[in-house]
Design goal:
The complex is a heterodimer of chains A (about 475) and B (about 325).
Chain A lengths: L19 E2 L1 E3 L2 E3 L6 E5 L6 E6 L3 H19 L4 H17 L1 H12 L3 H23 L12 E2 L2 E5 L5 H14 L3 E5 L6 H12 L7 E3 L4 H9 L5 E5 L2 H11 L5 E5 L5 E4 L5 H13 L11 E5 L3 H13 L19 H17 L2 E4 L14 E4 L6 H4 L6 E7 L2 H9 L6 E5 L3 H10 L4 E4 L18 E2 L4 H6 L2 E2 L4
Parallel strand pairs in A: 1-5, 7-8, 7-10, 8-9, 10-11, 12-13, 12-17, 13-16, 15-16, 17-18
Antiparallel strand pairs in A: 2-3, 4-5, 6-20, 11-19, 14-15
Helix pairs in contact in A: 1-7, 2-4, 3-4, 4-5, 9-10
Chain B lengths: L32 E5 L5 E6 L3 H20 L2 H17 L1 H12 L14 H19 L3 H5 L1 E2 L6 E9 L2 E5 L7 H11 L4 E5 L6 H11 L8 E4 L3 H10 L3 E5 L15 H9 L4 E3 L24 H4 L2 E9 L3
Parallel strand pairs in B: 5-6, 5-8, 6-7, 8-9
Antiparallel strand pairs in B: 1-2, 3-4, 4-10
Helix pairs in contact in B: 1-8, 2-4, 3-4, 4-6, 8-9
The chains are: A alpha/beta (about 475), B alpha/beta (about 325).
């Protein structure tokens, strides 16, 4: 096979990053009461990008008050058609500033510019566009004749899709007539800060969106605040459990979008080239930092050998490196912590007897990197088959019959997503009926759309985001 | 409209109002035109008087444009409709003048510049109506489509699809808001249409066609004719390629006799089983049609669904 050398195709990084960012409360940037800050780092170079204020309990309280005031005085009483127009404005400004957002996202997160440019940012804008349309049509959403907002939503989002997760949270909340206090992830606050500027450009009334960066403690303060009516969280199952405990016994409405250990199931009649592409995309997209990543490949025994060969051939071609290079397929792992977790689980796989395969490739000297890795000879009892790695690591298992495929796929506490690859339509639907997963992709994987509900079964959380079902998380039924 | 701008002596350049067919702006192939006067009797312009052939050309243009418009994603169509609102907002002043002229809504002392008057609020409502319908593009299937729990091992899903080419008789009185209220729900689902503008108040419709032409709307999705309602509407209603017809414009201007009997048009449509949306009216007979109050927001998506077909797909389930 010929090898092709690629010249670097760097995206210019002329994006304006301020030396420091404050909290965004009541429509203005403000310092934290206690003056604490955190540094956000480019995971591809370990260079410090900016300093961001850390919200303490007093700051979160200010933010919730601002959100409550906006809910009562501006956003809540505003006619829904006018709220809709604000959301359309936000969608449009996101589209206008998409390139800037994409560069910033890749710098702060480490993901390839190709993905932030083609997936994260356009989808974030689409989420606002879609939900803008709902804002004045809520009575048609099948959620009762007189759906009402909940009030103030406290939202905590992860670092894997920083702006997209913000959009998944903020857009439906505002469309429903709620106001929000959002805590972006500790390691990826920058696009949220730029989003705050977009709120200003859109003349969104002060207090409708408040952004309180910080680490776990800031998020916990948001979740625990007594004047928060709704808690929405995307992140690890472990933190999700803590949040469920925190809100237990209160009247807060909760939606949780947590971890996953998705099975990508390939039958012997699948279109193999397509399936290989789907499996590779399913696990290596966004360095595997995807809660719905297809981290377990279940391949039918009769084609396991051939499929494994095709898979390795494809994985060898993945280009790991500079996130801002338009040729890059796999960027940097988001943080040193995450890299350590990936190493811990892959080391455990070695110890438990799985066979590791990595195409030797040159990795940059600085930054956090993990080359795409495939484990075979994996047993369902191995940690690598049970625990979420949240990295570019695929565990390969086999099955013989559709029943066995279902049993193995469901043999996990998680239930976020699943993939099925077969040319037989009736089998896709038979499998879909039996898979305990909130999203089942057939002959495709990692598809997202604001119109399509996303969320998990079992310990992958509860509630959905997107579609009519996603709106339900931000509304309550009320009588006229 | 004034001849000479106050004091400067400059003669203003007036617009020629033409038809809009397939993204182009032709005069009527018949060469005919008719005088359009303001509500107060002032001469405004000569509009093209569309012929049977213009109507057939417009249907052909709609037929050509419809498949790719329907194939665009609902998200794209929604963005195009929203873009129409943006473009309309940018030409708000022009529309306020035209609507005020057409509907006799000049604000005393401010002339055509009564940007806060009744005409202005009609233009604002028309802009907002585009936004409202834009939002429906990717929701109509979610509201009107559904999975059907049939008693057997089948996947069964129903979704609304656009019906095809729709002929629209635009309201006679409400020259912009009424027009938008009948056109937007037709095209949002992926139909193309041929619109016959208000006979006596056609100018806002033609100006709207200029807005549509600069809004990323593919040429031919909305074709606008001006002329005699009585002459052109029977050709549209009976055209075999027209799948549905909205007879809103069969209702006369307040205080006038209807120039067409919508019952006759419905009979003409029946020969090809063209779907008919009847004009509003309380009387049981077809003579007494009334134009509704278009300022009232639509209660729901019914107007969209009248121009869709429900398609149901069955697929077996089995290992």
């Amino acid at each position: 096979m010929p090898t092709f050398e690629y010249a670097p195709a760097p995206q210019s990084r002329d994006v304006d990053i301020k030396a420091s960012y404050g909290l965004f409360i009541g429509g203005e940037f403000t310092d934290a009461v206690e003056g604490e800050t955190l540094e956000t780092v480019n995971p591809a170079t370990e260079e410090v990008l900016s300093k961001v204020a850390v919200a303490g309990t007093a700051d979160v309280d200010r933010a919730v008050r601002a959100a409550r005031a906006a809910y009562e005085r501006s956003w809540g009483p505003m006619p829904a058609t006018e709220r809709a127009k604000y959301l359309f404005r936000v969608a449009r400004i996101l589209q206008e500033r998409a390139r800037e957002m994409a560069v910033l996202e890749s710098l702060d997160n480490g993901k390839p510019i190709r993905e932030s440019r083609d997936v994260d940012i356009p989808l974030a804008a689409a989420h606002f566009f879609y939900h803008a349309g709902w804002a004045d049509k809520l009575e048609h959403a099948g959620l009762g004749a007189h759906p009402r907002p909940l009030g103030v939503a406290g939202q905590v989002i992860p670092w894997n899709f920083p702006l997209l997760m913000l959009a998944w949270k903020v857009a439906p909340a505002l469309a429903g007539g709620n106001t929000v206090v959002l805590k972006p992830a500790e390691t990826t606050p920058l696009t949220a800060m730029l989003f705050a500027e977009i709120c200003q450009q859109a003349d969104l009334p002060p207090g409708v969106v408040n952004i309180v960066p910080g680490a776990g403690a800031s998020g916990a303060a948001v979740v625990a605040h007594p004047d928060v009516d709704k808690v929405a969280f995307t992140g690890s199952t472990e933190v999700g459990r803590q949040i469920a405990r925190t809100v237990a016994g209160t009247r807060k409405k909760v939606t949780l979008e947590l971890g996953g250990k998705a099975a990508n199931i390939v039958f012997d009649d699948a279109a193999l080239e397509q399936a290989v592409e789907g499996v590779v995309n399913g696990i290596f997209f966004n360095q595997g930092h995807v809660c719905c990543a297809g981290s377990r490949l279940l391949v039918q025994e009769s084609i396991a050998e051939e499929f494994g060969e095709r898979l390795r051939r494809r994985v060898k071609l993945l280009r790991v490196g500079d996130p801002l290079d338009k040729n890059t397929d796999v960027g940097a792992v988001n943080s040193a912590d995450q890299l350590a977790k990936i190493k811990e689980l892959t080391d455990a796989a070695d110890e438990e007897g799985a066979t590791r395969w990595t195409e030797p490739c040159e990795l940059p000297d600085r930054g956090y990197w993990f080359a795409p890795t495939v484990f075979t000879d994996v047993s369902p009892a191995h940690r690598i088959a049970r625990e979420e790695v949240f990295g570019p690591v695929l565990a390969v298992l086999t099955f013989r019959t559709p029943e066995e495929a279902v049993a193995r796929a469901n043999n996990t506490p998680y239930g976020l997503s699943a993939g099925v690859w077969t040319e037989k339509g009736s089998r896709i639907l038979w499998m879909a009926d039996r898979l305990q997963a909130g999203v089942v992709w057939a002959n495709t994987f990692n598809r997202f759309d604001p119109a399509s509900p996303f969320g998990g079964y079992k310990e992958s959380g509860f509630g959905r985001e997107g579609g009519r079902q996603g709106l339900a998380g931000y509304l309550k039924e009320a009588s006229a | 409209m004034t001849d000479v701008d106050g004091g400067t002596g400059r003669v203003d350049v007036r617009k020629t109002y033409k038809l809009s067919i397939g993204g182009a702006f032709p005069r009527s192939e018949s060469g005919r035109s008719y005088e359009v006067r303001a509500a107060d009797g002032r001469f405004l312009a000569n509009a093209a008087a569309a012929s049977r052939k213009d109507a057939r050309d417009a249907v052909a243009a709609a037929l050509k444009a419809q498949p790719s418009w329907a194939a665009a994603t609902a998200y794209s169509r929604g963005q195009v409709l929203y873009r129409v609102a943006e473009m309309l907002e940018g030409r708000r002043e022009q529309f306020v003048t035209e609507v005020a002229d057409a509907e006799g809504l000049h604000v005393a002392g401010l002339g055509a510049r009564g940007l806060d008057g009744a005409a202005a609020s009609l233009v604002d409502a028309a802009i907002d109506r585009w936004v409202w319908y834009a939002g429906w593009s990717d929701k109509i299937a979610q509201v009107a489509g559904n999975a059907n729990p049939v008693a057997g091992p089948y996947f069964n899903l129903s979704v609304p699809e656009p019906t095809g080419v729709v002929a629209v008789l635009a309201p006679q009185a409400s020259s912009l808001l009424g027009l938008v209220s009948v056109v937007a729900p037709v095209i949002v689902s992926g139909n193309a249409c041929v619109v016959l503008a208000s006979q006596e108040r056609p100018l806002p419709a033609i100006t709207l066609s200029e807005v549509l032409a600069t809004s990323d709307l593919p040429g031919g999705v909305v074709n606008i004719l001006t002329g005699s309602t009585a002459e052109v509407s029977p050709w549209l209603a009976s055209h075999e390629a027209v799948r549905a017809v909205d007879l809103a414009g069969a209702a006369p201007l307040p205080g006038q006799e209807a120039s067409v009997d919508w019952g006759e048009l419905e009979r003409a449509a029946a020969s090809t089983l063209t779907r008919v949306v009847r004009p509003a009216g309380r009387a049981p007979s077809s003579e007494a049609a009334e134009e509704p109050d278009w300022t009232a927001p639509p209660p729901g998506p019914a107007r969209i669904l009248q121009f869709t077909e429900t398609k149901t797909v069955w697929h077996p389930k089995g290992r």
